[in-house]
């Protein structure tokens, strides 16, 4: 019998895991819930992790890929997730591994030819789409979409929504639900809702797990602009175009120009390349400026750290400014100061 074993990664394994991942153009990101190491005898030859309900960072040294170790490693990860009460699993990996995961009854949600998103059942994506349809209902006019993080909500975000509102019958604003930003999701959601109350054709809803999330575009949250990030961005764009937009009759998506963040700019370029394949028009809108500089959430946080409220009030809606000068900010101010 082949001498394989699987265990949780320890400090002695770390360098081996990093090298194994590097051989597959992967990295070990912070925030993993659990990372396993596959060994042949005492030699680490493979690794796999999960973060929340998403299996990722699956890699095995090339000379061992046909030896059966992959099944042992994946079985270990699945059993560990079961032990933690996770039964509906997502899986993000290279497309070349698809056959391995299909043998474990994972279903393909989207395969770009480079990377793939799979799920242990179709219940997750089907339930998500059903919930969107129930929340939004049918609509026969022009329905547009904006996907925003709003960390926090600025006058730049507000201008983009206003533009979409003027040019569309209805606008769906998806606020990123992934809680990896300085401002928590519930705060970001409320700031958007409060900041657009006067616009009657806007609906603000959570983005859910299939839009700019740990499953579809994990690099967004660590601001990675590598080839790996480009592949993830295209996956996210394909999922939006082929599944989400198609299911709820979205024909247009709005984004702002991105002068600062390479990862967001990469994502915009991926949307430009992909969405037209699904008859979704991408509208790129120049950013609102103040003092000849584009307004961004990053600038807002910089002025918060500096305590420069005189300039700050020119960058955000009144409702956001009121939050930023209230006691409610106390719970996250340390995150802002240490950013």
TrEMBL record:
<keyword id="KW-0436">Ligase</keyword>
<keyword id="KW-0067">ATP-binding</keyword>
<dbReference type="GO" id="GO:0008771">
    <property type="term" value="F:[citrate (pro-3S)-lyase] ligase activity"/>
</dbReference>
<dbReference type="GO" id="GO:0016747">
    <property type="term" value="F:acyltransferase activity, transferring groups other than amino-acyl groups"/>
</dbReference>
<dbReference type="InterPro" id="IPR016181">
    <property type="entry name" value="Acyl_CoA_acyltransferase"/>
</dbReference>
<dbReference type="InterPro" id="IPR014729">
    <property type="entry name" value="Rossmann-like_a/b/a_fold"/>
</dbReference>
<keyword id="KW-0456">Lyase</keyword>
<dbReference type="InterPro" id="IPR000182">
    <property type="entry name" value="GNAT_dom"/>
</dbReference>
<dbReference type="Pfam" id="PF08218">
    <property type="entry name" value="Citrate_ly_lig"/>
</dbReference>
<dbReference type="GO" id="GO:0016829">
    <property type="term" value="F:lyase activity"/>
</dbReference>
<dbReference type="InterPro" id="IPR005216">
    <property type="entry name" value="Citrate_lyase_ligase"/>
</dbReference>
<dbReference type="InterPro" id="IPR013166">
    <property type="entry name" value="Citrate_lyase_ligase_C"/>
</dbReference>
<protein>
    <recommendedName>
        <fullName>[Citrate [pro-3S]-lyase] ligase</fullName>
        <ecNumber>6.2.1.22</ecNumber>
    </recommendedName>
</protein>
<dbReference type="InterPro" id="IPR004821">
    <property type="entry name" value="Cyt_trans-like"/>
</dbReference>
<comment type="function">
    <text>Acetylation of prosthetic group (2-(5''-phosphoribosyl)-3'-dephosphocoenzyme-A) of the gamma subunit of citrate lyase.</text>
</comment>
<keyword id="KW-0547">Nucleotide-binding</keyword>
<feature type="domain" description="N-acetyltransferase">
    <location>
        <begin position="1"/>
        <end position="123"/>
    </location>
</feature>
<dbReference type="GO" id="GO:0005524">
    <property type="term" value="F:ATP binding"/>
</dbReference>
């Amino acid at each position: 019998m082949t001498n394989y074993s699987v265990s949780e990664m320890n400090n002695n394994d770390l360098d081996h895991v990093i090298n194994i991942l590097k051989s597959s153009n992967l990295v070990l990101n912070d925030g993993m819930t659990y990372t396993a190491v596959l060994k042949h005898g005492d030699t680490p030859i493979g690794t796999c992790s999960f973060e929340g309900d998403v299996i990722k960072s699956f890699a095995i040294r090339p000379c061992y890929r046909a030896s059966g170790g992959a099944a042992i490693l994946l079985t270990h990860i699945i059993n560990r997730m079961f032990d933690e009460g996770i039964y509906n699993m997502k899986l993000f990996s290279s497309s070349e591994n698809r056959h391995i995961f299909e043998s474990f009854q994972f279903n393909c949600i989207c395969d770009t030819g480079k990377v793939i998103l799979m799920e242990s059942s179709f219940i997750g994506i089907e339930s998500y789409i059903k919930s969107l349809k129930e929340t939004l209902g049918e609509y026969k006019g022009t329905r547009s979409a904006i996907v925003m993080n709003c960390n926090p909500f600025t006058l730049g975000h507000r201008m983009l929504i206003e533009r979409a509102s003027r040019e569309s019958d209805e606008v769906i604003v998806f606020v990123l639900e992934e809680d990896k930003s300085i401002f928590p999701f519930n705060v970001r959601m409320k700031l958007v809702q409060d900041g657009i109350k006067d616009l009657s054709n806007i609906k603000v809803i959570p983005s859910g797990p299939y839009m700019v999330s740990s499953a579809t575009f994990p690099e967004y949250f660590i601001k990675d602009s590598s080839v790996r990030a480009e592949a993830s961005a295209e996956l996210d764009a394909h999922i939006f175009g082929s599944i989400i937009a198609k299911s709820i009759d979205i024909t247009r998506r709005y984004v702002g120009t991105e002068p600062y963040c390479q990862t967001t700019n990469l994502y915009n370029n991926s949307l430009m390349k992909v969405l037209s394949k699904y008859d979704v028009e991408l509208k790129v809108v120049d950013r609102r400026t103040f003092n000849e500089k584009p307004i961004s959430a990053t600038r807002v946080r910089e002025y918060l750290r500096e305590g420069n409220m005189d300039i700050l009030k020119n960058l955000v809606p009144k409702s956001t400014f009121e939050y930023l000068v209230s006691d409610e900010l106390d719970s996250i101010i340390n995150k802002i100061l240490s950013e």
